[in-house]
Write a structure and sequence with these properties.
The protein has 9 helices and 14 strands. With 362 residues, the chain is α/β, with parallel strands linked by helices. It has 2 domains: 226 residues, Spore Coat Polysaccharide Biosynthesis Protein SpsA, Chain A; 65 residues, no CATH class. The longest helix is centred in the middle third of the chain and has 18 residues. The chain is globular, with a radius of gyration of 21 Å.
Amino acid sequence: RDMMPACRQISPDTLNTSNVFSWPNCKQNMTANNITSFSSLPGHIKDFLYYQHCRHFPILLDLPDKCGGADQSSEVFLLLVIKSPPYNHDRREILRKTWANERFKNGVWTRRIFISGTTGSDFEKERLNKVLKLEQSEHNDILQWDFSDTFYNLTLKQILFLEWMERNCPNVHFLFNGDDDVFVNTNNVVKYLQSLEDNDGSKHLFTGHLIQYVGPIRIPWSKYFVPVQLQESDSYPPYCGGGGFFLSGYTALVIYNMSKSTALLPIDDVYMGMCLAKAGLSPVSHIGVKTAGLYIPSKNIDKYDPCFFREILLVHRFNIAELFLMWHRINDPKLKCFYCCTRLHYVDMSLQNSATYIDAAC
């Protein structure tokens, strides 16, 4: 299938890894034809059901020593896991220079990984794979598997990463998991995680923009269409928006273990919530995570004023130029923020989930 190429043994010269795993070909599940009203489903839904059971794919670019080896992975405090399709080269370059820069700060290490599949066909796919391989040779920060990197395969991408994490970075303390078009104030993220009481990553944490009391979208032309053949229930468990969320290493491994007995759903953030619910765990809201954007209730104020972004954890979404500029503006030691006239909701991340109100410049 286009979305799920057959698994195969990988030739050594296509890898940047010391661990090669291969699986038998993942074949189409023809019993899907027996599902009620299967013939009336859109083609991409049929395709998903045919290959829903496929969870193992060849790894094209690997990072077995990214965390210093499994035994030394506790030295990584925060692992940034960024979903990025092959063609987003420019975004990856900007992130490496801004919030996703690997560094030792506040006494802890932050590391970066981009997770990717493949896109295009024939020559285009080959060219994009070469781009990733060149990036890998320079930055050593890409995990790539040989599956089609599409919206409906985002859950597969998450599970492949968690499987890799269990093998190579099982003791990392905390993770960010999100898209490559978000702005993350990693300075605040580290401070927030270090401020947690009695949790060094060995206990449950899953926080972000909490979404609850919603269910599957049954409109066939919607990007998020989930028919009853995929999800019978009309409600989803609570989950955090997939633009970006934060979790402990403990919770990441719990999700992976729960996923082994949970059928894949194409909506990856919902799937994470399903695995949490199965384990008896819940996600929580963090007021500093704005996956729906930051609301500025005045046309007289620049919505990209760095003073609004200096105290948050994450905002979705930014274009490349906006992201590059914002990172440098919030880190400018000469930045001065003055507030007057209009009260705006303002977040102090040093207080974790608390919020204050300040007077914002008119």
